[in-house]
């Protein structure tokens, strides 16, 4: 088997590469390293079955030859985070929409056997019900969510029109080793781990009673591998932990208390709960998550040195970083 992973030097992508190599695949990675890190695959540098090409997925002429002879494509390459998507929507459209179009064109021309798209649960916006199933209304609240949804629409359209064997997995709050440590203000794990290492208070949004469907990265990878092995085409599946956990619970598991937490204003456009209804993927693919939040957090704590490069966010720096968030999404 030959598999190609876009964004393979990134967080989820590098774990996908590890799984594919462990399964005996030849793996080709495309990554422009704008957010991915070569270090994420340094432990595989001597693996003769791995080839890494530094390239932009929008450069169709450059990437197309890499798709020749490929069986499975896993498309993870994308720009993430809310605030920069509000500030630079053109960059997000270019990467997440134009880039997806470019990868789809290359995959179609090469006649790949499976194409796995990475969708985001942010497309649901603020849902009406929890857990949230795949029939929920699509309500993107910011450009990142919109561009990921547009990429998903493109992928599913190629399944319908060109019979490209596409499956889309809609991911909820992925966490684990190798998540991004630098750059813009983003996911809660990176923020909290940087604060823990620096001995700074945890910046808890609102009351901290809001809950998130924290899903461990190896469970996500297992869902992708399971879906790729199946014969399902043109479907989209939610992928989550089958639970939802409060931010306060996360602080507790990281060793924090109310005394070393500081509360910052609740942000517009964020749901009070994210929680995937996984009945569809349970039934159709017999997939279930395996890693509990307690196990996942402990594994992160065992490897916490990875986050020593992470920025240490304070209430003041967060306020500055999220000004455009409140400016454009505030009611």
Summarize the structure.
This protein is an alpha/beta fold. The chain has helices at residues 11-22, 60-63, 82-87, 89-110, 143-161, 188-198, 217-229, 247-253, 279-285, 293-302, 315-321, 323-329, and strands at residues 2-6, 26-31, 50-54, 72-75, 114-120, 166-171, 174-175, 202-205, 211-212, 215-216, 235-239, 245-246, 261-264.
Any overview of this molecule?
This protein has 331 residues and is an alpha/beta fold. It folds into 2 domains: 198 residues, Rossmann fold; 111 residues, Alpha-Beta Complex (UDP-galactose 4-epimerase, domain 1), CATH 3.90.25. It is 38% helix and 16% strand. It contains 12 helices and 13 strands. The protein has a 7-stranded parallel β-sheet with strand order 3-2-1-4-5-6-11, with helices on both faces. It has a two-stranded parallel sheet with strand order 7-10. β5, α5 and β6 form a beta-alpha-beta unit. The N and C termini lie far apart (51 Å).
Task: Provide keyphrases for this structure.
UDP-galactose 4-epimerase, domain 1, 331 residues
Task: Outline the fold blueprint.
Elements (H helix, E strand, L loop, with lengths): L1 E5 L4 H12 L3 E6 L18 E5 L5 H4 L8 E4 L6 H6 L1 H22 L3 E7 L22 H19 L4 E6 L2 E2 L12 H11 L3 E4 L5 E2 L2 E2 H13 L5 E5 L5 E2 H7 L7 E4 L14 H7 L7 H10 L12 H7 L1 H7 L2
Parallel strand pairs: 1-2, 1-4, 2-3, 4-5, 5-6, 6-11, 7-10, 8-13
Antiparallel strand pairs: 9-12
What helical percentage do the residues reach?
Answer: 25-40%
Basic shape = globular
Q: Low-confidence stretches at least 5 residues in length (pLDDT < 50)?
A: none
Characterize the largest beta sheet: strand count, sense, and whether it forms a barrel: 7 strands, parallel
Distance between the termini: 51 Å
* The CATH H-level homologous superfamily of the largest domain: NAD(P)-binding Rossmann-like Domain
Topology-level CATH name of the largest domain: Rossmann fold
* Share of residues in strands: 15-25%
Walk across the major sheet and give the strand order: 3-2-1-4-5-6-11
CATH architecture of the largest domain: 3-Layer(aba) Sandwich
CATH class of the largest domain: Alpha Beta
Order of helices and strands: EHEEHEHHEHEEHEEEHEEHEHHHH
Number of domains: 2
Count of DSSP E strands?
A: 13
Name the structural class.
alpha/beta
Radius of gyration: 19 Å
Instruction: Calculate the mean pLDDT score and round it.
Output: 96
